[in-house]
Amino acid sequence: MKLFRWVGERVIDWLVREEEIAGSPFCDFNRIGFEIRPCDVLLVEGRSHVSDVIKTITQSIWTHAALYIGRLYDITDAGLRDLIIRHYSGDPHEQLMIEALLGQGTIVCPLAKYRAENLRICRPRGLSSHDAQKVIAYASGHLGSDYNVRQLLDLARFMFPYTVLPRRWRSSLFERHAGAPTETVCSTMIADAFASVKFPVLPVIQQGADGHLRLYKRNTRLYTPRDFDYSPYFEIIKYPLLGIDDISLYQRLPWDENGIVCNDKGDCYSAVAPQPTVEIASNEGLNKPTHTEV
Question: Which residues pair with 35 in a beta bridge?
Fold first, then answer.
């Protein structure tokens, strides 16, 4: 048992190990920190090995989702505020999020930890402040829960085509009591929180014989971070590094004028074709004067 635990810990350590940041992020973190509101979903382009796995599974750069809850004094319910304080002992003026992380479970962490990352805000359109507090309360109720590694594996199996993997091997996602209730993953926890107030993310919509539409709750175990990006019920908010106003003046952006094209930072080449060298053949006729001597 101890050997299995030791091996599991080593595997998790490898999965969560992050690569060095390559280049600058595309977003303005200071603007994001100023504009983000409680109950916004923050999407993160992760750099760890498990992030690479999630990118492969979901075919999306967004590998992690966190629920922004604001500062402690933004929490109006005293009991809820005390619950969050029990899981966070940092600066009370810090902007906070609730997230589920492999190796750490569901935790409270500062927004500032993602300062150097590529981020995107997904804002639930029209969500009332009262329901926003309920969503935060639901997510807070999962603080201390473990990360459900089995669900991540089940999701990977489910997303393979039928011809590759038999359906019976990926059926655990549809079991009524699949997985322990004390375990979760980032996107499932957030989707469950919004479902608790009947706010749609990507519901199943069917039209009955009478022409009326009916919404059905989608299995939240199937949600991935990209679904908040795709959802028509969430506004996508981006703050580019150069500023939201600067981009309208795109003709004044500091573009390179030397014809350099880059695959990535440090991997560039010149796209300007070299001018062909014109050789003039030696010809006596070309060397004759063009004017007439008198």
Answer: none
